[in-house]
Structures are given as structure tokens and as C-alpha cells.
Design a protein that fits this description.
about 230 residues
């Protein structure tokens, strides 16, 4: 009986690893296609980062609040955070871009948490269940660890993570600590990658790609080590 359970877990683990590898391939494919289309289109000579920064400067004191609002609200509708973080790196640079993205990431996480505890709880439960994500009541006992693992191993969009964890009954403190430990490192990597996209082929560009791949591989090892959390 135990052997059968182990076999099922191994199959589930292989499925999750393949899902992560597929995500890696799709991510690089999308980024490559977007860049090539832009690079060899008439837009390449017309639009540049300086102009984008100029648009933001035109917003004056509203530039930062507008960006934070987009980062805080869009993931509530299951919009991925990686493009937002990369845009932050392109526009604001690695250091300031990371600070803004990290703040936006946490504001979004807190918004989702309080939405799951309020009048939208039943509606959010329907959205989460409809996407095949289960709400694990075990999070209440191991809140920090499980939240960290869910953030660090990118199997589901951040928006769904927020809702699933928030609905579990986890405390706000454990939710926040796990989110910071497991999620902000990915935010930094995507911001750094966005900043390095300004100079494709540069040392910074290859460092950012190597950092992303390394973190991705580490997440697979973490997934394998803690397979019971994701497979059971």
C-alpha cells in the first residue's frame, strides 16, 4: 500500500516538474518572440526606453502611484507579475524598480488577503475552485513554511496563490512572512532581467538569465524535497 502511494507521489512529482520545465520553455519563447518582432519592426527606431521614461516623467508626482496601482490591482485579476516586474526594471532600473515592485507585490498580497476575509470570500472561493486550486486547511498549522513553498515554487499565478492561501485561515503574520521570504526573490530576478533587456548580449543580460535559470532549478529541487506539500 505504501509502495503504491509512493509511486503515485512520484508520478505527481514528475508531472509538476514537467509543468515547471514547460513554463520555462514558454517563458523564454514568448520573451524571444516579442523581442524579435519589436527588434525588426519599424517601431524599434521610433520608440525607446527614453521615451517611455519621458511618458512617466510627464505624469509628474503621479508616475510612481500609477505604477504601484497597476502592480497592486492587476494580479487580483490573475494577471502575471513577471511582466510588471520586468517593465519596472526597464523603466526604473534594478534598485528603484525592485523597491517599487516589492511594495506593489506586498500591497497586492495584502489586498487579496483581506478580500478573502471579507464580503468577496464566496466569490473568490468559486474562482479558485474553478481553476482547480484547492484550499488547504493545513496551512493554518504550517503557515510560514507552506506559504514560502507556494511562493518560491512557481506552479500557479500569484493571484491564485494569494486567494488559496488567504482562504485557508492562515494568520496575516504568517502569510506576510512566507510571502516575503518566498516571493520577493522572484520579483528581484524579474526586475533585474527587465533592466538587463536594455542591453541584450551584455554581461548583465547573461547574468540575469543565469540567475533566473539557477533559481528555477533550485525551485525544482525544493519541489522534489517537499513533494508531499504539492502532491498530497
Amino acid at each position: 500500500m505504501q509502495m503504491e502511494e509512493n509511486v503515485k507521489k512520484d508520478r505527481g512529482l514528475k508531472y509538476l516538474v514537467l509543468k515547471e520545465l514547460k513554463g520555462l520553455f514558454v517563458f523564454f519563447l514568448i520573451i524571444s518572440v516579442i523581442y524579435l518582432i519589436f527588434r525588426f519592426s519599424p517601431l524599434y527606431g521610433t520608440y525607446n526606453v527614453g521615451q517611455l521614461k519621458g511618458v512617466l516623467k510627464g505624469l509628474g508626482v503621479w508616475a510612481v502611484p500609477v505604477f504601484l496601482l497597476c502592480y497592486a490591482v492587476l494580479p487580483l485579476f490573475i494577471f502575471p507579475i513577471s511582466p510588471l516586474s520586468m517593465v519596472s526594471g526597464v523603466i526604473f532600473g534594478t534598485f528603484f524598480g525592485f523597491l517599487l515592485s516589492a511594495l506593489g507585490y506586498m500591497i497586492n498580497a495584502w489586498l487579496a488577503f483581506f478580500l478573502t476575509r471579507g464580503m468577496f470570500r464566496d466569490k473568490i472561493m468559486g474562482v479558485v475552485s474553478g481553476r482547480g486550486v484547492t484550499v488547504d486547511k493545513g496551512l493554518v498549522k504550517n503557515g510560514i513554511l507552506v506559504t514560502f513553498l507556494l511562493r518560491f515554487v512557481p506552479l500557479t499565478p500569484v493571484g491564485l496563490q494569494n486567494y488559496a492561501v488567504g482562504l485557508s485561515g492562515i494568520t496575516w503574520t504568517h502569510y506576510t512572512i512566507g510571502t516575503i521570504l518566498g516571493g520577493l526573490i522572484w520579483v528581484f530576478v524579474f526586475v533585474f532581467m527587465g533592466d538587463s533587456l536594455l542591453n541584450p548580449g551584455s554581461r548583465e543580460f547573461f547574468v540575469s538569465v543565469a540567475l533566473w535559470i539557477s533559481l528555477f532549478l533550485v525551485s525544482i529541487l525544493v519541489l522534489a524535497k517537499n513533494r508531499s506539500v504539492f502532491v498530497d
